[in-house]
DNA sequence: TTTTGAGTTGTTCGA
DNA sequence: GTCGAACAACTCAAA
C-alpha cells in the first residue's frame, strides 16, 4: 500500500514559519511531504548565473537542513514541468490533498488551473490559501464591487477593512505533522544548468533605526541603509507580509506601511487587468510613436547617457541587482520621455536585472512613469535629471559611488539635450493622447 | 443620476 | 532665493 500523504507545494513562500498553506497542510491529518519544483518554463529564460535562482536555491537548501534536523526527512526538490512531477508523485504515493498558497501572476494562474484539473481527475483536492498578501483580489473593492484603480481610496478602504486580530495571525507550524524519516530527492544548481551567482541578495533591514528615519531618508539614494531591501524577501516569501505589517504598526511608521499597501494595490490591478502586462492601462497611450532607437537603449542600459544620476542608477542596477527607488523613477522617466523608448523595453530590462523583480509592481510602476497606467504621472511631468541631483544627491555621494569616471575624459557627453528632449516628448505625447 | 473634490513621488516660469 | 500658478484636462470615488 502506498503511503497516504498530503503534499505542500512551495512557490513564493520559502519559509518554515508563519505560512498559511503549510499550516493548513500540517493540520490535514496526513503526513506532509514538502515540495518545490524548479520550472523550466521560468528558468529557461534566465542567465546561468541568475542571482535569484541562486537565492532560491540557497534558501531551499537551508530549509532542507532545518527539516532534516526536525523530521528526519527534508524537502523534495525537482527540476521539471510541474505537471510531470505530479504525475510521477501520483505513482509513488496515495496523495490525499495538495496544499499550496495563492500565486496571482498570469502564468501561475494558468499553471495552477492545469494542476488542479489533473488532480481533480483522481479525486484529489487542490487547496490554495492566501498567504503573500493581507488582502487579495476582491477583498478591497469599491462599494459597487468593482476594483479600485486609484491608490489613495484603495489604501483608505484597505485600512478600514484591516483588523489586526484576524489579519495578522501568526501561523505557527507544528513540525510533528511532516513526513518522517524519508529520503527525498535533492538536485544541484549545476544539474539545472545554473551556477552560483556572484551577486548576493542582501539581508533586509527593518530595524528601529530604519523605521525612525524612513520618511526623512528614504528618498536619498546615498543613504545606504535608507530603505528596507525587503523586495526580494517579499517576492520569494522569505519573510511573512504579516510580520512586516505588524512591525510597521508597532513602530508607528505610516509611510512604510503605505509602501506595503502599494504592493497589494498593484497586485490587485494585475489580477483584474492582466492585459496591462503588454498594453497601456489607458488605451490611447498605446498610440505613442516611440522612437525606440536601439543604440540609445544600449547607452541607457550601460549607464552611459551622460546624465550622472541616470548613469549611477543603471550602474548600481547592473552591478548589484538593486536600484534605489528614487533613481528608478528617474531612469524610467528618462527612458520613456527623454529617449521616447517604449516602457515595455525598460520593464523587460528591470525584470532581467532586479533581484526584487515582481511583475505587478514592475509593470505598474513602469506604466506610472510612462504616464499610461493607473494613477499615473501626468505626461507633462518630466523629471529633470540635473534638478534631481540638487534635490536628492546634492553632495554627489551616490553619483561618486557608481560613476567614479565622472571627471574623466572618457565619461560620455549628454546623449540628448534636456530642453530639446522635453519639448519633443510633450509634442509626441500630445499627438498620441489628444 | 449628478455633483464635487481630489489625484505618490515634477518642472518651469514669472513675480 | 522663494513662492504660487500653470502645465491640460480627465477620471475616479463617493456623497
* Proportion of residues in extended strands: 5-15%
**Element-level helix/strand string:** EHEHHEHEHEHHHHHHHHHHHHHH
N- and C-termini, Cα separation: 70 Å
Helix run count: 19
Q: Class by helix and strand content?
A: alpha/beta
Give the tally of structural domains: 3
Neighbour order of strands in the largest sheet: 3-2-1-4-5
Provide the CATH architecture of the largest domain: Orthogonal Bundle
What is Rg? Answer: 23 Å
**What proportion of the residues is helical, as a percent range?**
40-55%
CATH topology of the largest domain: DNA Cyclobutane Dipyrimidine Photolyase, subunit A, domain 3
Low-confidence stretches: none
Question: What's the structural blueprint in terms of helices and strands?
Answer:
Elements: E1 4-10, H1 20-26, E2 32-38, H2 40-43, H3 51-71, E3 76-79, H4 82-92, E4 94-101, H5 106-121, E5 125-129, H6 151-161, H7 164-167, H8 208-217, H9 231-236, H10 241-250, H11 254-272, H12 294-302, H13 308-320, H14 325-338, H15 343-353, H16 359-370, H17 387-392, H18 397-402, H19 418-433
Parallel strand pairs: 1-2, 1-4, 2-3, 4-5
Helix pairs in contact: 4-5, 6-11, 10-11, 11-16, 13-14, 14-16, 15-16
The chain binds a DNA duplex (15 and 15 nucleotides) through α6, α14, α17 and α19.
Amino acid at each position: 500500500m502506498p503511503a497516504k500523504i498530503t503534499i505542500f507545494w512551495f512557490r513564493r513562500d520559502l519559509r518554515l514559519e508563519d505560512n498559511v498553506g503549510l499550516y493548513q497542510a500540517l493540520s490535514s491529518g496526513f503526513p506532509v511531504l514538502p515540495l518545490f519544483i524548479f520550472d523550466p518554463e521560468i528558468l529557461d529564460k534566465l542567465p546561468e548565473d541568475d542571482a535569484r535562482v541562486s537565492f532560491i536555491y540557497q534558501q531551499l537548501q537551508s530549509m532542507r537542513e532545518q527539516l532534516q534536523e526536525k523530521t528526519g526527512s527534508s524537502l523534495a526538490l525537482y527540476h521539471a514541468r510541474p505537471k510531470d512531477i505530479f504525475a510521477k508523485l501520483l505513482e509513488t504515493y496515495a496523495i490525499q490533498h495538495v496544499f499550496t498558497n495563492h500565486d496571482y501572476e498570469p502564468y501561475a494562474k494558468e499553471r495552477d488551473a492545469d494542476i488542479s484539473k489533473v488532480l481533480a481527475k483522481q479525486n484529489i483536492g487542490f487547496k490554495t490559501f492566501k498567504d503573500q498578501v493581507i488582502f487579495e483580489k476582491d477583498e478591497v473593492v469599491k462599494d459597487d464591487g468593482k476594483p479600485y484603480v486609484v491608490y489613495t481610496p484603495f489604501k483608505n478602504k484597505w485600512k478600514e477593512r484591516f483588523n489586526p486580530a484576524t489579519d495578522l495571525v501568526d501561523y505557527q507550524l507544528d513540525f510533528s505533522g511532516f513526513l518522517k524519516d524519508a529520503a527525498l530527492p535533492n538536485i544541484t544548481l549545476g544539474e539545472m544548468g545554473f551556477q552560483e551567482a556572484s551577486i548576493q541578495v542582501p539581508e533586509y533591514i527593518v530595524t528601529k533605526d530604519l523605521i525612525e528615519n524612513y520618511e526623512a531618508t528614504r528618498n536619498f539614494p546615498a543613504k545606504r541603509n535608507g530603505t528596507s531591501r525587503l523586495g526580494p524577501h517579499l517576492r520569494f516569501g522569505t519573510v511573512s507580509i504579516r510580520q512586516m505589517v505588524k512591525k510597521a504598526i508597532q513602530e508607528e511608521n505610516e509611510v512604510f506601511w503605505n509602501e506595503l499597501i502599494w504592493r497589494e494595490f498593484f497586485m490587485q490591478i494585475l489580477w483584474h487587468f492582466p492585459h496591462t502586462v503588454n498594453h497601456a492601462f489607458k488605451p490611447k497611450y498605446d498610440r505613442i510613436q516611440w522612437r525606440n532607437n536601439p543604440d540609445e537603449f544600449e547607452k541607457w542600459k550601460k549607464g552611459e547617457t551622460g546624465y550622472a544620476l541616470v548613469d549611477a542608477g543603471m550602474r548600481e542596477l547592473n552591478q548589484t541587482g538593486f536600484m534605489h527607488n528614487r533613481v528608478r523613477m528617474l531612469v524610467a522617466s528618462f527612458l520613456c520621455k527623454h529617449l521616447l523608448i517604449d516602457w515595455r523595453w525598460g520593464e523587460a530590462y528591470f525584470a532581467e536585472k532586479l533581484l526584487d523583480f515582481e511583475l505587478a509592481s514592475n509593470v505598474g510602476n513602469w506604466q506610472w512613469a510612462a504616464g499610461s497606467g493607473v494613477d499615473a504621472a501626468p505626461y507633462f511631468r518630466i523629471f529633470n535629471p540635473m534638478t534631481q541631483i540638487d534635490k536628492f544627491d546634492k553632495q554627489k555621494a551616490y553619483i561618486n559611488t557608481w560613476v567614479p569616471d565622472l571627471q574623466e575624459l572618457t565619461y560620455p557627453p549628454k546623449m540628448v539635450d534636456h530642453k530639446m528632449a522635453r519639448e519633443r516628448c510633450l509634442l509626441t505625447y500630445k499627438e498620441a493622447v489628444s
